[in-house]
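Consider the tokenized backbone below.
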């Protein structure tokens, strides 16, 4: 790797984490793409930063589930949609006076809602339940 590439990737990853954090509170700014970009940058530049990101108490489990293709839990989807629409409604009602910006907020809200609803829903106990139904014992189960 080029000598300047590692610091550049760490910098881009760190800026992406910061933007992802801001995106948690501002629904117009997407959180997931920034956190996934940070994970990609850290994976190519720093095992320590990647480990920190994937084990972060705020979004580590979320990123791991997304990267593994498990999706979001139904409660995370619901909470995200409630926060999204509440923030958009407050923004449109109190912070924005232009009709075209309100329309833009509506379009963004509909787009994010469609994306979230189409995303796979992760059901934490479902995988173990399917294995049990198929007669496959979990690895920590004791033999009779």
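A designed sequence for it:
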């Amino acid at each position: 790797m080029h000598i300047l590439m590692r610091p550049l990737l760490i910098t881009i990853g760190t800026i992406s984490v910061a933007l992802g954090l801001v995106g948690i509170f501002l629904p117009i700014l997407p959180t997931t793409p920034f956190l996934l970009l940070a994970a990609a940058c850290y994976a190519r530049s720093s095992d320590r930063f990647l480990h920190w990101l994937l084990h972060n108490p705020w979004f580590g489990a979320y990123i791991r589930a997304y990267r593994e293709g498990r999706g979001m839990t139904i409660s995370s989807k619901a909470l995200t949609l409630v926060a999204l629409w509440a923030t958009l409604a407050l923004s449109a009602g109190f912070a924005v006076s232009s009709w075209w910006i309100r329309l833009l907020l509506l379009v963004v809200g509909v787009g994010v809602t469609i994306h979230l609803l189409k995303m796979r829903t992760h059901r934490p106990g479902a995988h173990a339940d399917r294995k049990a139904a198929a007669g496959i014992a979990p690895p920590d189960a004791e033999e009779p």
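The CA atoms of residues 75 and 121 lie 10 Å apart.
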